[in-house]
Specification:
Elements lengths: L3 E2 L12 H7 L3 E5 L4 H12 L4 E6 L2 H10 E2 L3 E5 L5 H8 L4 E4 L6 H6 L1 H22 L3 E5 L10 H16 L6 E6 L2 E2 L15 E3 L5 E5 L1 H14 L4 E5 L3 E3 H12 L3 E3 L21 E3 L3 E4 L6 H5 L8 H6 L1
Parallel strand pairs: 2-3, 2-6, 3-5, 6-7, 7-8, 8-12, 9-11, 10-14
Antiparallel strand pairs: 1-4, 11-13, 12-16, 15-16
Helix pairs in contact: 2-8, 4-6, 6-7
């Protein structure tokens, strides 16, 4: 049944390939952090393609109520809970086929002040997800990472780097396929730079700063594709363009009638993010619109010899 929004309009048809549609049909999915912008888009996409059931696991009852009202005639269930709570997580995950782990504390400034709380959710919560997937025989689980996990300089990025490490390690001795999606900023996601509803003041912290951006529908499709098709044990890094932040802020400020001001550069943020660090290029395989990083597929002697002939590393070890 096609999802219908509360205003009576049918849900948009996001670009999901036919082979993915067949795998989605009659399958059950759990999305942690499912009331977030990305989680909601993924849920609507899965429901549109005939998913038997989509479960939303989050700790915000207001967002769950709003999401419940926005989707009518859908096979969707809501579970209040926190990924820190192992027992509640296992209740929610029991009986599903696929899991998307999007729950996380993401505010960089909060993470620098209260790192222990970010660790409890982003790292210990991830460990709980992995253990619940193992116990319940989940087919595939995909974790959401970020470009800030690459050579991280803040707490949020460091915890996402650990999520990647935990997922890769879990895939080595478990029937569940664990994979990771890594990308930059999602356009118009709640609280992001390009969320027009959250831009209350226009501040440029560094005129040279750049960021990677992707639109919401493309991010959702990339995550679903990775969940269904990844063999596990890999980080899928989406190819995406980067933009000068100052130009974006000035244009948004012009449209909203805001005065642009300059702020002091924030220590916990990089001027330029990167999607793959130099050390990872030796294991990167070009897959068209994304790179696959699979640390376990190369013998140690190849990795140790990566210092020689740094140019062409990808093509050399791709064979």
């Amino acid at each position: 049944m096609v999802p219908i929004y509360a205003d009576g309009e049918p849900a948009r048809h996001f670009p999901v390939r036919r082979i993915m549609e067949k795998m989605i049909k009659n399958s059950k999915f759990l999305i942690t952090g499912g009331t977030g912008s990305l989680g909601q888009t993924i849920a609507k996409t899965l429901l549109l393609q005939g998913a038997s059931e989509v479960r939303i696991f989050s700790r915000d009852e207001l967002k769950q109520a709003e999401m419940r009202q926005s989707l009518l005639q859908c096979s969707i269930r809501f579970y209040l809970g926190d990924v820190r709570d192992e027992n509640r997580l296992e209740q929610a995950i029991n009986g599903v086929d696929y899991v998307i782990h999007a729950a996380a504390l993401k505010r960089i400034e909060s993470g620098e002040i209260q790192p222990e709380e970010v660790i409890r959710t982003n790292v210990l919560g991830t460990m709980n997800i992995i253990e619940a997937c193992r116990k319940n025989g989940i087919i595939s689980c995909t974790g959401i990472s970020t470009d800030k996990a690459v050579s991280p300089i803040n707490t949020y990025g460091a915890t996402k780097m650990l999520l990647e490490k935990l997922f890769l390690a879990a895939s080595r001795n478990c029937k569940t396929r664990f994979s990771v999606c890594r990308y930059g900023n999602i356009i118009a996601s709640r609280g992001s730079l390009l969320d027009k509803n959250s831009l209350l003041k226009a501040v440029i912290y560094n005129p040279q700063m750049t960021r990677f951006f992707i639109d919401m529908e493309a991010a959702a499709t990339f995550v679903i594709r990775t969940l269904l098709h990844s063999p596990g044990g890999e980080i899928c890094v989406l190819k995406m363009p980067s933009y000068r932040i100052d130009k974006i802020i000035r244009e948004m400020a012009r449209k909203k009638g805001l005065v642009v001001t300059e702020g002091i550069p924030r220590q916990a943020e990089k001027i330029h993010e990167i999607l793959i660090n130099p050390e990872e290029t030796v294991i990167a395989r070009d897959k068209g619109d994304y790179f696959s990083l699979s640390p376990g597929i190369f013998p140690c002697n190849l990795l140790l010899s990566s210092k020689s002939k740094s140019s062409g590393r990808i093509s050399k070890y791709e064979q």
